[in-house]
Design goal:
The complex is a heterodimer of chains A (140) and B (655). Chain A is α/β, with parallel strands linked by helices. Helix content of chain A is 39%, strand content 16%. Chain A has a single domain (7-139), classed as Rossmann fold (3-Layer(aba) Sandwich), CATH 3.40.50. Chain A has 4 helices and 4 strands. The chains are: A alpha/beta (140), B alpha/beta (655).
Amino acid sequence: MSFEPKIIAFLCNWCSYRGADLAGTSRMKCAPNVRPIRVMCSGRVEPLLILKAFEAGADGVLILGCHPGDCHYLEGNYKTLRRVDLLKKMLSQLGIEDERLRLEWVSASEGERFVSITDKMTEQVRKLGPFPRRNGGNNG
Amino acid sequence: MEGEVKIGVYICNCGTNIAGTVDVKEVAKLAGGLPSVVIAKDYMYMCSDPGQNMIKEDIKQLGLNRIVVASCSPMLHEHTFRQAVQDAGLNPYLFEMANIREHCSWITEDPKLATEKAKALVSAAVRRVYYQEPLEVREVPVTPSILVVGGGIAGIQAALEVANAGHKAYLVERESSIGGHMAQFDKTFPTLDCASCIFTPLLSTVGQHPNIELMTYSEVEEISGYIGNFQAKIRKKARYVDEDKCNGCLVCVEKCPWKAVSEFDEGLSQRKAIYTPFAQAVPNVPVIDTEHCVYFLKGTCRACERFCDLKAIDFEQPDKEVEVAVGAIIVATGYDAFDPSAITNYGYGRYDNVFTALQFERMCNASGPTGGKIVLKDGSEPKNIAIIHCVGSRDKNYHEYCSRVCCMYSLKYSHLIKEKIENAEVYQFYIDMRCFGKGYEEFYERLSNEEVKFIRGKASEVTDRARTEEEQGKLVVVAEDSLMSALIRVPVDMVILSTALEARSDAAAVARLFNISRSADGFFLERHPKLDPVATTTDGIFIVGCAQGPKDIPDTVAQASAAAARVLAMISQGKVEIEAATAVIDEELCSGCKICNLLCPYSAITFDEEKKVSRVNEVLCKACGVCVAACPSAAITGKHFTTEQIMAEIEGVLA
């Protein structure tokens, strides 16, 4: 059987969570591998939470925020952007493919974009294979 | 945490919406085996009264102190269930929702995979709710006044509703008079009421209303605060005419020797450099257009000043900044008409006798540029006129959406042409006739009997290149008649382009100003397309009229009244509940680095110089959690989104 990745998607309450809702309401179909976690703002997603997701068994982490300029909290998404860039560098230094972490913008009206991003991410992580853990288990 | 945690889990079938894809029994079985779960069951409709009562009963009978409902999106029913648990004596923040409909059953094809995902989402919610804590819902008083932005029919209606209920309304309009697009209209479909006959009484009521403070030639520059307590900074642009002194005699306008193109007449006439846009302008106080006034350009003239007995002209008048406090804001900024010069095939701007819909509207109007006569550029009367529908609408190259009003105003034009020009021939080039409103289909039927020629097909081109003698000197509309499956050429004297309604060119900036979202078509986005069409994701800010999407006058008026009703409900309650899930700083852990002070987008965090620690002002905090994520000492807790809660959710969803 082929490898089915587990992906955590942090969705902000105002844009991407609603974009994901719209995808559902419009009965679009998307990969079931992506598991959403709602936060108020993508700016709440601290590196610790991303690392926790990897530790707890995620093979990939998606952070979906509002488009630049559209953040409900003015500029929380910019803060995420900087944070994710730094964390990506750190991940590659640790020998973890930085493609396992991805930040994208999805507005409340972009159900289709939500589906296409989650599907692409699933495909990408499927190619990368399981997250490199010692013993292959959830031992962090 | 006090006492033992007892969790109740309820899996909604949502008819077949969830249960058709997800094996709800299996999900309930899994949930029943999770730690601290006392009871787990599925039910047909959890949001129904029996569903809610089931939760309330179980809380009482089994002593549940945490509730998870797995059903639709929390955007839909989080409030419902929070209320239900509160009714049963539980703090509403001890409730958690798992979205197994929008995020699971509706979006996943394979029932097995959908059930797996639903299980993951439910166990995430169960683990999360374990750590959730009761929070106190805070109430703040509501300032009993409103800011309405935009003085078209939408804003006017909203302001009047609130003002008539006895509350203060600040109506801000960017132009020098209120009226918006509706003031430009000649007749209104389908009743053919004269637009100004029904509209100008409203304009003057607004102008004289004791509860309405009208700020024309003004723009909102900054919004701060939160629901119930907004502060708005408004710039009153200098009109160089003192509103208090001017009595509206308009001698200044008469004496002004300088002219400019009239925006109100859509470029078909000229106005003076000091002007009121139209005769019934409210307020009836002119404004000086500094781009065309020769005094501002070259320092000479001042004719207006010399002839004004009341000394109302003031070339030194500065812009003024005004601050108002309001409880709610209604955004009614309207639409822009699509500029058809983008579609070069139709020749707008190239051929003299191709007009936009709004230009034709002005032409039909008795107080318009031609005194109500339909004439060609050379002053002669056209004998045959083509009306091209969907110019910029229903077109992948421009706007995919239907502008909703064009079919109807095009029908109205046909009638006006027939009325004003004997034996005129009118051709309507349409894709589909969309006559959906009350009395609309009947109007279409009526026009069909007035011998209007309906040609089903999109016009591809308007050209002056004649192929036959008959086409000489005419504009030829080239189209496919899709009912005849034939390419046709129709020679006419005049072409009217039924242009789309589009989002204002500055809609993005306005959205940022009021912190509201836009949909893919550029219009402002409502909180819920069906159940909450006038609210936005920012509490206390509402959207009405064409700012939200193309709509006709009846729908606009209905929406404006709806938004006003929402505002009045807030005002009569006198208080509103605001977010309880704020950030809080543990002073023991705070190192006083002040990083959070700088990051907070609402300046809600201040520094206590004495204790050398930062502190959150809970009223200003909007719970984004940016400070929580950034605090190097982990001294800040984002209530209801604590690190512990989110981590538990992550573990649950991956378990």
